[in-house]
Amino acid sequence: MKALVTGANGFTGSHLVKALQKRGDQVVGLVRKSSNLARLEDTKVQLVYGDITDRNALHQAMQEVDTVFHTAAYVELGLVDEQQMERVNVDGTQAVLEIAKETGVSKIVYCSTIGVYGDTQGKVVNETFSRTQENFSSAYDRTKFQAQKLVDKFAADGLPIVSIMPSGILGVDDPHFGPVFKLFLKGWLKLWLGGDRMTGIVHVDDLVNAMILAAERGQSGEHYIISAGDLPTREMFEIISQETGINIPTEVPQPIVRFAANLLDPIGKLLNWNPPIGRERIHYLYERCVRVDATKARKELGWKHQPVNEILKEIVKQLQTSN
């Protein structure tokens, strides 16, 4: 198989590139000229340089490609550049779909998110669930929902595309929760927020396996939730604490956190700075709760995954070994 991976230098994209090459597949990676390529140093990926909305670059990247894996996305919460996020997540997805249709690729696997289901208010949902949340929790929430609508429309019109809906993606080199793991292991993480927040988890390598299975077995137009399960953040730290003997960080009282968020948001807007805590992040910590069931992927794709507690333990061991 010859495959194109958009966002090949990213967290998920780079793991996918390595998994495909390990299988013996030929891999093309679309990256920007300004991209940090450190994650691809040990690969033989054929690079095509261009923005995700650059149709000429996409056309070049898709030549003689069988399968397109679209992982490129702008992922961030808080005070973000909404126009840039929409350009990448929505316009970029439309460009990928249009060029894939023109070039006649045999399969597209789109990396979406469980976030498209909106706030399920703690209810565990599957792929049949229709979003009931009328507004959007963030620009990311909105743009990924819009992109999914585009994907579904192209699929309905006959484009062979499968959507993968991952929960929180973890791994040793995870750019979001990874730094938290590292701080914890050094004994520097003394405080934490939102211990009751339910966090859905999937290991990046299990996600990559699901994407490859989706390319091989997934039915066009179908959605597949990819999650090993969920648990409160406090329990995540308890598992890591039991594994390492390091004390669980103290949870900051919610009123203090909300006060800090209300204070930092206007400062961030004034200074063009995205603070670590703001009203949007508070909403995700204390109010929004998305829970999902990945039975369909296990049954229809034959997807297998590590249990949540084993994912956490493995990451800790790998980080300890690397240090």
UniProtKB/TrEMBL annotation:
Superkingdom of source: Bacteria
Family annotation (InterPro entries): Epimerase_deHydtase (IPR001509), NAD(P)-bd_dom_sf (IPR036291), NAD(P)-dependent_oxidoreduct (IPR051783)
One GO cellular component term noted in the UniProt record for this chain: cytoplasm
All residue ranges annotated as the NAD-dependent epimerase/dehydratase domain in the record: 3-226
One GO molecular-function entry: aldehyde dehydrogenase (NAD+) activity
Entry-linked SUPFAM superfamilies: NAD(P)-binding Rossmann-fold domains
PANTHER family linked to this entry: NAD(P)-BINDING DOMAIN-CONTAINING PROTEIN-RELATED (PTHR48079:SF6), PROTEIN YEEZ (PTHR48079)
Name assigned to this protein: Epimerase
Species assigned in the record: Mastigocoleus testarum BC008
